[in-house]
Structure formats: C-alpha cells, structure tokens
Prior knowledge:
The protein is mainly β. The protein has helices spanning 125-131, 302-307, 379-385, 422-428, and strands at residues 7-11, 28-29, 39-41, 46-52, 62-69, 85-88, 95-97, 103-105, 110-112, 136-141, 144-150, 154-161, 171-180, 183-184, 195-197, 206-210, 226-228, 242-250, 270-280, 283-291, 299-300, 318-324, 327-342, 347-358, 368-370, 392-398, 405-411, 458-463, 467-472. Strand 22 and strand 23 (327-342) form a beta hairpin.
Amino acid sequence: MSRFLRSHRITVFTLAGLIGLPAVLSLEGMDGLDGLNGFVSTAEAVTRDLGVADSIALDQPRVFVQFETLPTPGDTPGPIEYFNGFVLDTGANATLVGSAAYLEFTGLSFELNPNLYERAQRTDTDAINAFGPSIKYYEQGVAGLSQFDLLAPMNLNYAGHNGDVLGDFQQTTSATIPAQFALGAPELDLGGFGGIVGMPGMVDKIVSMNLSAMTPNDGFFLGYLGVDFPASAPAAPSPADSYTVSLDQLAPVFSGKEHPTDPNPTFSPLPLIPNITTGANALTTTGSYLLDTGAQLSMITMDTALALGIDPEADAVDILEVGGVGGSTFVPLVEIDTITIATNDGTDLVQNNITVGILDVEGLPVAGIFGMNLLTGGYLDHLLLDGDDGMFSQIVMDFTDEEDWTMRLDVSPGYVPRTSADDVNNILGNTSLYRDQALLAFDPGIGNQFRGVPEPATAMVVLLTGAVASMSRRALHCRL
C-alpha cells in the first residue's frame, strides 16, 4: 500500500537542455559514522559527521539587478527597485526574467508590461516567414517544453549585499554581464524573486556566501545570507574547519532554437560535485550531483533511489505534485541515511537523516541535486530553538580558473552537530516544511536593496537547471 501522506502541488520550469559528465554509480557496504566530536579516522580518510541535515533551506543567495539597454548604457527598462531581487542560481546556465521584473508602477498600482524588455528580432527572411520576427527559445521541463522570449542583448548590472535586513543593509561588490541574451517569461511567477541570475553571473568570479549573516543578535528573526564577489577569497574563520571540494563542469547545449540562424542565449556551464556518496538501507551509491543554490531542497534520481534499495512508493513519507507546461508529475519524498562529500583535504563530510525528492529531468546526467538545504543545515535550530550558527558559516565558490572550479566549505567554529531531528520535527512535523501546520510566520520584509515589501505567501523552490517549484505553505515563511 502506498505510504503517500498527502499531495502538495508545485510548478517546475527548466532553463537549459544539458549534456555532460555521466553519473558514476557503485554499490558497496555502508560504514558506520559514529565518533567523538563528529570525527572518525579510517585507513582511507578522516570522516567528520556534521549531524542531521535540515529538510529545506531557510534562504537562498540573491543579488539585486538592473538591466541596461544597448547601445545606450544608462537607459534602464527595469526591473523597478521593489522587484529587483534575483536568485543567484548555480543550477541555471542562463539569466531568466520572471513576471515580477516586468512590473511597472502606474501611480496607483503595479501593472504587468510584457513589452518592458525588447525581444530579440530575426533578420533572416526565411526564419521570419516561418516563425515570425520575435525569437523564442524552448526548454525541456519535467512535463514538457516551456517557451521563453529571447530578449535583445542588454547589460545586466548586479550586486551582492551583507544580508543585514534588520539593521544596516548594504550593497557589496557589483558586477556586470555585458551584452547578454537573457530569457524572458512575463507570465512566470517566481514568488519573492524577480528572476534568476545563473552561471553567466558567476563564471570568472569568486562568489562568497556569508551564512552567518542569517543569525543576527536580534532574537527570533533571521537575516538573509550575505553575498559578495570579492577579488580574492575571504579568509576562513577557522582554517582547521575549512574544507575544499573540486567541481566538475557540465557544458550546455543549445537545442531549443526555432531556426538555425537564431542567436544563442547566453549560457555557461553548470558546476557538479563529484564523488558524492548517498547511503540508505545499508547500501551506498556514488556519483556526481548538480550544485544548485537555487534549490531549497535536494533531489536524487530514480536510479540512485533504486541503487539504495528505496521503493519510491512504499518508502515515500510524502509526495509533491510537480507541474509544468504540458502536464504534471508526482515527486515522492523519501528519507536517506547519509550524504557524504569527499573533500580535497582528505576529510569526508557527512550529513544524516536527509529528506529528498526523487526526480529525473531529461538531459541531466547526474545522480542527484545538491540543494541549499545541505548548505544551510542547522539554521532552523537557530530560528526555532535558539541554537547556535548552522553547519557552515561561509561558502566560497571560485570560478576564476576556467579549468579548475572549487568550493570551500567553512564549518562554523565550535559547531556541535545535531544528533536528532526530533526537536525541529516536533515543531514542524515529521517532514518539516511540507506539512500544513499553521505554526509560525515571519518576514523581515526586504525585497530589494533599500526598501521592504511584503512577499507572497508562497515558498519558491528553484530546482535543477533553473527549474522552479512553488509550494503553498503555512508552517514557515521562507524568505526568497
């Protein structure tokens, strides 16, 4: 009999057709991970147990943006400052402009202007006769193809911030993507985000995420995680607690053009974390995971689930209905025992008791999706139980070397791994934020660089290659 407990509807859109490195799967016995202070030494490596993972991320990295038209820099069609917060998404290989970034203030209300940004136009007569003058681009989603406008080339100016939404909220380093072809979707609701800045905004740069900014000394409220693009990597708070991981790259393909003469969108490769080992039912399987800062929760593929002896129906603790253009599908939520990252430093970092979805996306050759919940673990404790900082105080991704991408994970100094999910689950329910319990809501009320706006009561989950999933929730207001 199915153990699906209830159905929640989400909507998923994908940004990029992909080819790249195949997942490598193997089965072997799963070793125990107990040890004093989270460390275990073996002949092969040192294992550091980081404790129980959070089921969903409290925040995702965001930047604040402004487009400039060409050839006249300074002419800024949008977005207006109330809706200029875009998610900084390593799981998207393009920039996507959503419906909120198409809004204009008319003096009395905000109105959607689908023509706010100029669409790219064809010059080839045969292409115009076949498809019309405006260029569209198609992407494969979980339920079929999604159509996007290809926008005319624009400069994209964007900036990070210190995350201090309750105090001195300030901009950090700014950057520009020059003359990029972005994708536009005037009808695509991204909740609290106006759009997505994908990997084109991160290649050739260092991206620093200050997770400790989410835990200001203001009691109940959390800030945003801070985002910066420093010229050099910031120092680790505690070098002994700092670990580096090499990242592989997944190259994009341009399979969604209507006509061969159409220009390509501005795409960049996606980062993969190699050699991630998942464990369940005394089995393990190892493969590459997409590093996806746009995903609030993590996913495994059906092949990974089956290799772990998981029955997607019998073992499901909950289910999400995932819909897109052309239909919908169901994503079972299951619990796995461990996720282990092999670091360059010879230490394996282990997280335990993780709730993941099972989802395959056509053209994405990975074993799973490494979402933000595996980077923001422990911050639910700070919010709900007045705990300390989470697992990681800082994440530094270095994309400056074309052939050698890395991610540095700085474990919070003095971090004490949480050994049981019971405390948080007693508040949020067995599967955390997926439950429909009206228990608490909070919103620091910041929607852009300097002004706060109420955010919609929908949690947005940006998944996979820029895929976006929305789920209604009453238990916890995740700021996005």
